[in-house]
Amino acid sequence: MPDVHKLSRAAYERLRAEYEDLTTRGRIDIARKIEAARELGDLSENGDYHAAKEEQGKMEGRILHLARILDNCEIVEGDEGGGGEVRTGSIVSVLYEGDDEPERFLVGSIEEQRDDVTVVSPGSPMGEALLGARPGDEVTYESPAGALTVKVVEVE
User: Fold this and answer.
1) Per-domain boundaries in the chain
2) Which stretches of the chain drop beneath a pLDDT of 70?
């Protein structure tokens, strides 16, 4: 059975729009590039043709990846009230032992990536330790450098 991808409503809508764009406009654009490159002549030494075919391969890979995610996803709602427990889709501020400034993490899928926050998978050691924690809780998890303890400062 495929893994279920937990996505926020916003991430689901963004991925759905990207999928629709790639399967319509994207495929038409790449077909035009390939056709234009074919008209330039000998395909064995045609850099434009090879670049367009490589771009097509990457785009088709992304389409397949998006289709798998969208076919096997569950929409999760964040902690609307704030201050509750960490769930998939929560943004968590944690303070490492010895640090003065908290770091922010989004517990969820890499597809939720945003510029202002680092994504941590709920299946990772840190993500598993954070799930269910509340502000004020300290959680310990195993990292490659050994056991680390973080204090949950805020849950959004």
Assistant:
1) 5-75, 91-155
2) 1-2, 78-83
**What CATH number should be reported for the domain whose range is 5-75?**
1.10.287.180
Prediction pTM value: 0.72
Distance CA 39, CA 28 (A): 17
pLDDT in tens, 85-94: 998 888 899 9
3-state SS track over the chain? CCCCEEECHHHHHHHHHHHHHHHHHHHHHHHHHHHHHHCCCCHHHCHHHHHHHHHHHHHHHHHHHHHHHHHCEEECCCCCCCCCCCCCCCEEEEEECCCCCCEEEEECCHHHCECCEEEECCCCHHHHHHCCCCCCCEEEEEECCEEEEEEEEEEC
CATH number of 91-155: 3.10.50.30
